[in-house]
């Protein structure tokens, strides 16, 4: 791992426990906070998440000024459940109606900027099954406490289908596609533990100046563009413990992986890393949970290359009668 990335990991990491709601209320002042949940067919989980935020962070400690659900073409009761729990609900396609409708999660998040007013916008997936209000307070902490920070990513253990061990198989696209890509082309971001996680927060002043990919490339695109716009020091990471959500099939995740790779390709091009393609880093940083946070583990992944055997003199000799 680059020394700069390791230093960032040390300096810009915190955990949700460092940011109790009462402390944040003292730091909030006149800053307005919006929480946005993109939701496509999440009637089983969206209501509980909205109610928890309303109860804990609107009524008990007034940190959050608005809770907005962007209904992303749901065909179930998502919109009604979210509204009954206390969210303002907007149909994705009804926002900015002059524009042609695009689809996917990134489109829902992009459009949320047009219907929210927070100086800070916190994004939370609507399919979380172990949501707690500390997800929101954790993400707000560095933004309310550090004026230099503009963008905060959550990190957490991601068990797969209820498995108990940390990192037990969850985040398949993260581990197999996004992390190797990041390490290869953006080694400065090797300390980001969950680059694809759906929970993150940013200042509106940054978010409104960034392009949003429309589908599942949105997290990687925002992370890479935030690095360009705010620099590594403008990013922070907060440990939220464990995240559990509903899992897609491997087949569906292949489409997600394709969107992640398209996003990486577009940013390599846009950020001038394509021509000539800067030589990719052969080092891969993975993570293990330690007693005081995540421990980076560097792994060498360099591949060698052999020429065709016919070019090897010794081989030619062995073929002679
Ligand atoms: O067209 C869509 C698809 C999804 N969602 C919502 O977006 C959130 C995350 O979607 P999901 O399909 O559950 O994604 P995951 O399989 O969990 O994918 C992970 O990786 C993605 C790629 O980075 C991120 O977008 C996700 O937030 C992250 O959880 C959920 O609330 C969905 O309801 C929409 O609003 N519109
Ligand atoms: O971030 C990811 O890699 C995808 O959301 C897949 O996660 P899962 O393997 O836990 O379903």
Bound molecules: uridine-5'-diphosphate-glucose, 3-phosphoglyceric acid
What proportion strand?
A: 15-25%
CATH topology grouping: Spore Coat Polysaccharide Biosynthesis Protein SpsA, Chain A
The helical percent reads 25-40%
Order of helices and strands: HEHEHEHEHEHEHEHHEHEEH
Regions with little confidence, pLDDT below 50 for 5+ residues: none
Question: What number of domains?
Answer: 1
Span between termini: 52 Å
Keywords: Glycosyltransferase, Magnesium, Transferase
Domain Glycosyltransferase 2-like: 34-145
Family: Belongs to the glycosyltransferase 2 family.
Protein name: Glucosyl-3-phosphoglycerate synthase
Characteristics:
about 325 residues, alpha/beta, Spore Coat Polysaccharide Biosynthesis Protein SpsA, Chain A, eight-stranded mixed sheet, two-stranded antiparallel sheet, binds 3-phosphoglyceric acid
Fold and architecture overview:
- It is an enzyme of class 2 (transferase).
- Its EC number is 2.4.1.266.
- Pfam families: Glycos_transf_2.
- By secondary structure, the protein is of the alpha/beta class.
- It has a single domain, classed as Spore Coat Polysaccharide Biosynthesis Protein SpsA, Chain A (Alpha-Beta Complex).
- It is 38% helix and 18% strand.
- It has helices at 3-11, 21-28, 46-60, 78-85, 105-115, 134-145, 172-185, 204-207, 218-230, 250-270, 313-319, and strands at residues 13-15, 33-39, 66-71, 88-91, 120-123, 151-157, 200-203, 235-242, 283-290, 293-300.
- Strands 1-8-6-7-5-2-3-4 form an 8-stranded mixed beta sheet, sandwiched between helices.
- Helix 3 (46-60) links the parallel strand 2 (33-39) and strand 3.
- Helix 3 packs parallel to helix 4 (78-85) and helix 7 packs parallel to helix 10 (250-270).
- The termini are far apart.
- 44% of the residues are buried.
- Bound molecules: uridine-5'-diphosphate-glucose and 3-phosphoglyceric acid.
- Residues 158, 160, 170-174, 196, 247-248, 253 line the site of 3-phosphoglyceric acid.
């Amino acid at each position: 791992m680059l020394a700069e990335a390791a230093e960032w990991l040390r300096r810009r990491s915190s955990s949700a426990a460092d940011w109790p709601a009462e402390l944040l209320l003292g730091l909030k002042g006149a800053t307005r906070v919006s929480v946005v949940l993109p939701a496509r067919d999440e009637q089983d989980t969206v209501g509980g998440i909205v109610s928890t935020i309303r109860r804990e962070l609107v009524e008990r400690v007034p940190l959050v000024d608005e809770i907005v659900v962007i209904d992303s073409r749901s065909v179930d009761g998502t919109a009604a459940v979210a509204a009954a729990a206390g969210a303002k609900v907007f149909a994705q396609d009804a926002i900015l109606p002059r524009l042609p409708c695009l689809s996917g999660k990134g489109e829902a998040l992009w459009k949320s900027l047009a219907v929210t007013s927070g100086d800070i916008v916190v994004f939370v997936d609507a399919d979380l099954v172990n949501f707690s209000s500390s997800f929101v307070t954790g993400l707000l902490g560095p933004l309310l406490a550090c004026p230099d920070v503009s963008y905060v990513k959550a990190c957490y253990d991601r068990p797969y289908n209820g498995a108990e061990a940390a990192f037990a198989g969850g985040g398949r696209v993260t581990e197999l596609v996004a992390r190797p890509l990041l390490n290869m082309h953006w080694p400065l971001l090797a300390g980001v533990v969950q680059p694809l996680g759906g929970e993150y927060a940013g200042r509106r002043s940054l978010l409104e100046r960034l392009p949003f990919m429309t589908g599942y490339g949105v997290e990687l695109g925002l992370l890479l563009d935030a690095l360009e716009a705010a620099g590594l020091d403008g990013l922070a990471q907060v440990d939220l413990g464990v995240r559990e959500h509903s899992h897609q099939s491997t087949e569906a995740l292949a489409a997600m992986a394709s969107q992640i790779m398209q996003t990486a390709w577009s940013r390599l091009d846009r950020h001038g890393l394509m021509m000539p393609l800067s030589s990719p880093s052969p080092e891969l940083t993975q993570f293990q949970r330690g007693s005081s946070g995540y421990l980076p583990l560097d792994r060498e992944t360099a591949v060698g290359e052999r020429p065709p055997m016919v070019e090897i003199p010794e081989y030619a000799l062995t073929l002679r009668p």
